[in-house]
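Hey, I was hoping to borrow your eyes for a little while. A protein chain has come my way and I'm curious about its shape. Take your time with it, there's no hurry, and the full record follows here:
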Amino acid sequence: MIRKRSQFDLLMLRLQLGLLRHEKSFARWSEDVREIAGSLEEKAGIPMVRAELELIIEVQTDEFWQDITTAMRENVRSICSKGLLHFYYTGGGPQECRRARDEHIPPCT
């Protein structure tokens, strides 16, 4: 999971650099983040995901990306610190969903 968190952090760094440099790559990186958010939204039945659903839904809107700030980007990156990326990368199948309901899933480290 550490590797997956590092990949997400790298994606967020690329996103930030694309934003600061006004690069076309910003659109590509933001689409990747939207894809992750969309996948997480599909897992809204998991309590940990449901707790962050407002942000997950907001990230998928055009309005969110129009005036994005460093603080907003960091807020999105915090998805990992809450352990939600685990459900994206594992697929969050039925066994994973039961585990999430029955026990605390530790955050990414």
